[in-house]
Amino acid sequence: MWLTEKFGLSVPVVGAPMANVSGGRLTAAISAAGGLGMLGAGSAVSAEWIRTEGAIAAAAGKPYGIGLMAWSVADHPEHLEAVLDLRPALVSLSFGDYTPYVGTLHEAGIVVATQAGTVADAREAVDAGVDVIVARGAEAGGHGRNAVATLPLLQAILDLTDVPVLAGGGISGPRGLAAVLAAGAVGGWIGTAFLTCVEAQTKEPARRRILEADETDTVYGTVFDAASRAGWPDEFGGRALRNAFFDTWEGHEEELKTQDAAHDDYVDGTRAADPARASIYAGQGVGALTGRPTAAEVLTGFASYGDYLRAALNGGSK
Ligand SMILES: Cc1cc2nc3c(=O)[nH]c(=O)nc-3n(C[C@H](O)[C@H](O)[C@H](O)COP(=O)(O)O)c2cc1C
């Protein structure tokens, strides 16, 4: 299979880039355990952070990736420079115009991915020469589109192109991984399932809230972006755990953008990881999280996908 052969993986899982969650430690742990870990470089990080965490990720001696926010690279060319110096095996550029950077990354020998939320997004990625397209459904955690769920999107993109396709959004265990592999994806692009790993940067109050949450507890919107003032384009909202801050401001996002007190409250709440005020990004698969596993334990769980594929062919018995 393209993914496992290209990067020498034993499990067809990419640990999706997650800002404030997947630093060097989680990235290295996922890569060391046979998946492909990815550093989540949000728009607010420094180039120094990318270099430091990238070095930690690389220390596993295995291929790893880095995910950049495409919309912020024009304002932060130093992010791309740091990435080019590190030369990770895979770079994803998602959410915004990534086309100016594809050639530069290819010249450095780096495989390029992007997350597509619609078939039109996927068509653009094919035209731009992207090497692997992530069919990222609306049930996914973090930022992206809320347009189409993973399964219809995955099928449509697989019908569209021969470029390798990864499935992202709602893959919470080996059953889901088996489903997308059976459909024709080369692997899973998986974030939420790693949120409570011991190696993740997730702060303790957020971890506790994530572990309590069930599959109905997420919301999608731009409330937290309006409060954060990080500069997110309005077309990309985020999926996070519902809380009092979201409920207060949903429907009043334009007003929120100019509310200094609410901005301060959000920043303060996020710093403390206060579940009532912070943006705790998570997908609908959050309900499946039960403890504080190591990344290697999560990957061992995903590695049993073959049992489900065999059972599907054997009338239900593994
Ligand atoms: C906490 C969190 C942070 C995220 N940060 C990023 C990011 O920095 N860059 C990015 O491209 N995607 C980011 N995403 C989206 C993921 O790359 C991926 O699309 C998503 O996690 C897949 O769906 P799942 O969460 O249902 O597994 C983030 C997702 C989560 C849950």
UniProtKB/TrEMBL annotation:
The keyword Chloroplast does not apply. One of its GO terms (molecular function) is monooxygenase activity. The keyword Flavoprotein applies. It comes from the Bacteria. Keywords: Flavoprotein, FMN, Monooxygenase, Oxidoreductase. Pfam families: NMO. InterPro entries: Aldolase_TIM, NMO. This is Nitronate monooxygenase. It comes from Kribbella karoonensis.
